[in-house]
Amino acid sequence: MQMVAEAQERPEARPIFGNGERANRLKATRFGGKLVNDYWESLFAAKEQGKKVVWYNGTYIPPFFHAHDVAWVHGEAWSAMLSAKHREVTAQARGDEKGYDRELCSYARTHIGQLLIELDKIKAGTSDIAPDDPRIETMLKLPPPDMIINAYPYCSSGQQWDDITYRLFGKRVPMMTISIPLLWGGRPDAGYLRGEEWNERSRYVADQLIAMTKFMEEHTGRKFDFDRLSEAMGYVKKAAQLRLEAMDLCTAQPSPASFFDWIVSIAPVNFLPGDQNIVTYFEGVLAECKERIARGEGAVKDEKYRLFFDGMMNWNKVGWLADKFAAVNACVVAGRYTHMSFWQEPELIDVNDPVLGMAQNYLICPNNHGAPIMIGEIEKICDKFKIDGMVMHAARTCRGMTNSQFLIADSAKRHGRQALFFEGDVADESFYKDELLNVRLEAMIEALDAKARAA
Fold it and tell me: A GO molecular function for this record (predicted)?
């Protein structure tokens, strides 16, 4: 899942398609770039500060690490950051050389490939890669783990990723896996946030989170501070509420923000420390959305059509894609990745006893629902934001997000919405074909224009 505050593009020409307009991005999101940079710089200095370091993959469990005063590396965020800065290729190439299939999750392949580069040899000057190679400069700063924790809903690749990491560190780093089971929704009383299955699995995950605090106590020699967890979750809950309030403002036409603004806003609710900064961030985002509505200003100039983006983000192409849709007067207003994840139900959290509500928010990752419930929630979002069409990003190496996309597209068509598919990936740019998306987006816009003329 992954997650940087600002994606940087290569110094190449911007996409020329449609009217040439660019996306009108929220200025408030720039503060997120500073927060993300501060987070990484703090992480790079963690060992010098005497902190233990946890490598983890999966859902948004950093408040537990923050409360226990350990540093954390979110594997997906790390790979997404390398991809957004276009520093992922060397790691992916080394994975290819060692036989890791190119269709393995590119988050995992980037992170594993980095380990296969043998950074210690680079530092010692005995590698075929120079230590001043800008492509690996950032990788050299990453501190090794003292613990590995996996907390992946829905994704089997996540567990295998951590198992390979464990092996590459010689099976010497203690590892814990938290099982977050699927919500199949097959029982008679099943539904969104309700039913026997929901209650059972909420408690099951919460019990494991408590066990995780014991695991951290064992490997740090310190007692876990639940009061500090409550404090951190107070900030997280407030930030999540502000985020949802700002998202709801996008029912306005034109929408004051786009899916791509919410993409670059993931870090504060996914892996940054739970403190006042993330509240301040979303206060700024909310205020700017309100100001834009008052001025009649949209994320897309002359917004004509409103789209839903299904699938993971292509971190190499965040700005590129934002401009591409803006150029055809189409605002991507919402998406499954942004609008159905990341503390989506903050009211479930009791800050005085937050663990159960945290477990429940981890369970409702959209891919973790059975298809009927998940698609029903998507349709509610599409109705709410008056969506005209759906853009299905079939991320080549993320089966967890793509498996259900034909069902989602069929549902969209039954409700009178256009749907297009384009292939790309989360962190491997080579799977993305710009000309293919151009042709399909042009066809969608022509179909939407024809429908509008016939109305």
Answer: iron-sulfur cluster binding
Q: What CA dihedral angle connects 153, 207, 186 and 312, to 10 degrees?
A: -10
Determine contact, residues 369/235, Cβ cutoff 8 Å: no
DSSP calls for 37-72 = HHHHHHHHTTTTTT--EEEEEESS-HHHHHHTT-EE
Indicate the burial class of 399 (C-beta count within 10 angstroms; 0-12, 13-18, 19 or more).
Answer: middle
Q: Is 14 helix (H, G, I), strand (E, B) or coil?
A: coil
| Distance (Å, whole) CA 14 – CA 9 | 9
Q: Quick check: 101 pLDDT over 80?
A: yes
Task: State the greatest distance between any 2 C-alpha atoms of the chain, in Å, as a whole number.
Answer: 70
135 and 63 Cβ atoms separated by less than 8 Å: no
Residue pair 215/68 in contact (Cβ under 8 Å)? The answer is no
Taking 80 as the threshold, does the pLDDT of residue 363 lie above it? Answer: yes
**What are the φ and ψ backbone dihedral angles of 74, each rounded to 5 degrees?**
-85, 115
Is residue 271 within 8 Å of 9, Cβ to Cβ?
Answer: no
**206-237 tens-digit pLDDT:** 999 999 999 999 999 999 999 999 999 999 99
d(CA 391, CA 442) in angstroms, rounded, equals: 12
CA geometry: angle 10, 29, 355, nearest 5 deg = 115
User: Could you give the CA distance from residue 362 to residue 356 in angstroms, rounded to a whole number?
Assistant: 10
Sign for the pseudo-dihedral over CA of 331, 17, 10, 93 = positive
Phi, psi of 13 (to 5 degrees): -60, 145
